[in-house]
Structure formats: structure tokens, C-alpha cells
Design brief:
Elements lengths: L9 E8 L5 H14 L8 E3 L7 E10 L5 H5 L3 E8 L2 E2 L10 E2 L12 H8 L4 E5 L8 E2 L2 E2 H6 L9 E14 L2 E8 L5 H12 L4 E10 L2 E2 L4 E2 L47
Parallel strand pairs: 1-14, 3-12
Antiparallel strand pairs: 1-3, 2-3, 4-11, 4-12, 5-6, 7-10, 8-9, 10-11, 12-13
């Protein structure tokens, strides 16, 4: 009697990534759960866009043949809920390094009004030039920028073109500003926090970051990482979204490889 082999696994897991976990760690945990569910030892698992360890929210995990669509998923629009502290700065523009209190240069300094904040934000929407943080996973001649920065070396990070579709003020009470940002691939929320602060004449560092969407998936599609079963099977996977181009036989991106380094946003690092 001939044993009928089940079709190879293929699909998507949308995970609500918790604070402190790297994107690659989430992939490793998903692989272990899939193997406990009967997947072969060499099952491919990758993600469609890195989230920093200090960020939470939507992480799209691709399983099996779905990893061939990695680049297309990564190129989708992203949405973030970014909390910015305008009273502090930090070398990494987030909690990866020590916060430094902002010291006004003028004795008559007043916190910017909501109208001033809204006006400044207009300069960061559309197609703009943005310089990634030096503490990022940008590849500079074979070395990651953050590695050079940690060694005290000069980090020649160049501005790059990114697209920010919209920025909406969710709440503002000095010094905390919460923004809803809809943007394209490669936009660094840490750079946005820093640059917006400079535009306002204040500090500017990322207090918290949640990815609320990685199109076509939203936080409503995401499953809690801590509530996942011990084993995962094909029935636990979502189908690939419609409209993807059929990739070549060679994977469009190497599974489990990405800009998943300390202080690296989704390249969207951050990232």
C-alpha cells in the first residue's frame, strides 16, 4: 500500500510580536511549533519585514513555499503607532541607549503647541529624504552601521528616499506625542522621531512603537504570541494574499535573513 504524502506546508502566520523578542527569534519559535505539528526538519520559515526587539505588533511570518514571496510582502505599506518623547534624546533615538534630557537653548523656551506640531509634521509627509540612524542595520561596505557605531568609528550613513503617506496626531501632551504613521518600506520611525524633534527645536526619541498593519494584514489579524498552541499545522496558517506575482523558482529572499539586529527597524528597519 502506497503512503500518500501530505502537500508541503505553505502559508502565513500573523503574529502580535511581544516586547523584547527579535523577529528572528519569533521565526525560530514558529519553526519549532511547526515541527512539533509534523513539519519536516528543514521547513523554511521567514518574515516579511523586521520589527525591532523594542517594538511590538504585526509580524508576518511566512512558512514553506510562502517564503518565496518574502520580498513582495516586505514591500507592502506599513502602519505604526509611534510614541515620541520630545523632552529627551538618545544616541540610538530609542530605549536601546540611555535617554538624555533635552536642554533648551533659550531661557524663554515654551513647549510647542499642537498647531506647531501639526505644522511641522506636514514637512515629513510625501516622498522625502531620510537618514537612517547610525545605530541601524544599514549595510556599509559589508559591515552593519550599528557595529561601526559601537566601535566608535565614523558611520557614513547617507540619506535615502522614503515615502510617508500620512501622519496623524493621535494625542499630544507635552512631552509625549503619539502619531499614527502610514508609510512605505525603509522608513525609520526612530529617524522620524529625531528629525521631528529637531524641526520643533526640542528633543525627539522613540518611547514606544507598535506596528498596527503590514498590508494586507492588520493587528486584528494577529494572533497573540503567548497564546499560540504548542504545535502548529497547515490548518493554523492563513493563505497567501491574492494578487502576488508568481516568483521564479529561486526564493525571492533568503528565509530567516533580514536586518534583524539591535536597534534595527523594519527595513522597514526600524526597522
Amino acid at each position: 500500500m502506497t503512503n500518500v504524502q501530505p502537500p508541503p506546508l505553505c502559508g502565513v502566520l500573523v503574529i502580535d510580536k511581544p516586547l523584547g523578542r527579535t523577529s528572528m527569534n519569533i521565526c525560530a519559535v514558529m519553526r519549532a511549533k511547526l515541527r512539533r505539528g509534523g513539519a519536516p526538519r528543514g521547513i523554511k520559515v521567514g518574515h516579511g519585514g523586521t520589527l525591532d526587539p523594542l517594538a511590538t505588533g504585526v509580524l508576518v511570518v511566512l512558512v514553506g513555499k510562502a517564503t518565496r514571496y518574502c520580498n513582495q510582502i516586505m514591500a507592502g505599506r506599513k502602519r505604526y503607532l509611534a510614541t515620541i518623547d520630545l523632552a529627551h534624546t538618545s544616541p540610538t533615538h530609542d530605549h536601546e541607549s540611555e535617554f538624555v534630557p533635552f536642554v533648551p537653548q533659550r531661557a524663554d523656551f515654551q513647549a510647542p503647541s499642537l498647531q506647531e506640531v501639526s505644522s511641522a509634521i506636514e514637512g515629513f509627509t510625501g516622498t522625502i529624504q531620510q537618514t537612517p540612524p547610525i545605530h541601524s542595520a544599514v549595510n556599509l561596505g559589508g559591515a552593519r552601521a550599528y557595529m561601526l557605531a559601537r566601535e566608535g568609528m565614523e558611520v557614513p550613513v547617507q540619506p535615502r528616499t522614503v515615502t510617508i503617506d500620512s501622519i496623524r496626531v493621535v494625542s499630544y501632551q507635552w512631552p509625549m506625542l503619539v502619531l499614527d504613521v502610514h508609510c512605505g518600506k525603509g522608513t525609520y520611525m526612530r529617524s522620524l522621531a529625531h528629525d521631528l524633534g529637531r524641526s520643533l527645536g526640542t528633543g525627539g526619541t522613540l518611547e514606544a512603537l507598535q506596528r498596527t498593519a503590514a498590508e494586507p494584514y492588520t493587528i486584528e489579524h494577529a494572533r497573540s504570541f503567548h497564546e499560540l498552541p504548542e504545535s502548529l499545522r497547515q490548518d493554523d496558517l492563513l493563505p497567501l494574499p491574492p494578487g502576488l506575482r508568481d516568483p521564479a523558482s529561486k526564493p525571492s529572499a533568503t528565509p530567516d535573513v533580514g536586518d534583524d539586529q539591535p536597534s534595527a527597524e523594519p527595513p522597514p528597519p526600524g526597522g
